[in-house]
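Researcher: We're teaching a course module on how sequence relates to structure. For the next exercise, students receive a sequence and then see the predicted structure as tokens, so they can try to spot secondary structure elements on their own. Here is the exercise chain.
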Amino acid sequence: MYDIVRPDPEKEIHSLRSFGYTIETAIADLIDNSIAAKSNHISIVYEIDTYGSFLRIEDNGKGMSEIELVNAMKMGSFDPLDKRSDSDLGRFGLGLKTASFSQCKRLSVLSNNGQEISFRAWDIDKIHEYKEWVLYKDCLDANSKKKLGKIESSSGTVILWEKMDRLIETKKEIIDKENMYRKFQMVKTYISLVFHRFLENGSISISINGEILKPTNPFYPFENIFPQELQESFYKINNSRIIIKPYILPHEARLPNQEIKKYDIVRGWIEHQGIYLYRNDRLIIDGSWMDLNFRKRESQRLVRISIDISNALDKEWQIDVRKASAKIPDAIRKNITSICTDAIVQGIKVYTHRGVYVRRKDEKKKIIHTWICKRKNGERSYMVNPQHPLYILICDLLGENRKIFKSYIKTIDSMIPLNLIINDSCDENVVLKVEDEALESKRKIFKEFLKAITSSGMDEISARTLLMTTDMFNKHTDLL
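Model: And here is the predicted structure for the students to work with:
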């Protein structure tokens, strides 16, 4: 004996809207489908209007028959355990629906497979009205038909989002337009990163409102300055190969100021350190230590590690529906941990050695000062040097709490009593005394800093050399 219990359509549709997509991850999911359909051009067009906003994605792929389209519009249209082609970037058969419903309430799809033209549409309001999974065979109104348009190539698919309640929030056109433009700047950056390999090899082109996207390669962000490539490693799980390759990016001291911003990508330089997981050349993880026991540190921000897997390993890597999270398989966890550890040590050396170099004969030793002077528009200001190795060390030790330390240092910078110092220095009756630690006290501080730096991964000789380039210790060789 048993019961058949079917889900309530109105309630399930709201669950499907809450998978955690952002606008950029939702669009990326739809691009996956276009790539799987052998498209070589994907056009994204959006328009913001208080009552008629829409997003339209058209590809020139192989298209779908009516039977294939109806199946594609089902929830969970295929089994994630089924064997798929190597080029298939999907997984659960949910992406088209969950990605779309996360952003809009009406989803229309027009497809041409070269032999027949097919159409189907979902409308969440109609599902609520009829309390049933009502899949429409025709456009629901004339405006939808106009926005949907025609497929320009001999085959392909058009996806139309309307009733974009998750994107058009305030119903105030000026505010919604500003927010939409801001969100689509993020979309451009994200799509350029996630599909950079496809854009680089020319297998696809992607345009947004007519602008052709350029690839954003996280390992080669500059044309003529290249990263340090470390040893490539190969592993197998269930006869599927895994390729791991660490990179150490060039230190910012080697870059023109206008180029440094390229390191930030989406979330900022520090946040993009770590593992970049590619599945069939599509980026899944864009900078993370995933579930390994590493923290994001400022001194590790040059470290980026690419890992390539095929879609045959989705289960082992626990790829989620959004293709935005994964977990490292236990079978190779120790191997990947070891590779990451070696890369981190190398990355810290490159990062912290930026102020250390071999001196030529008779050349003055370069000193890293605790305080620096900044000049702008004829004005001078003084601040604690954020490139000082001890400043960086403290940020590393504080981890996620580094922002509190940085904010406090900025407060100190802004509260320097310059007027009082100037007045006292001009007063012949005032003797200014600079507090200086006794030699024994400095020796103790030196040892504490030395221990902390070597604990972070630098060898002792390099750590001593680095400390001796600072203005606090450079005149005290006896500390060694």
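Model: If you want an answer key for the exercise: The first helix runs from residue 9 to 16. Residues 355-364 have pLDDT under 50 and may be disordered.
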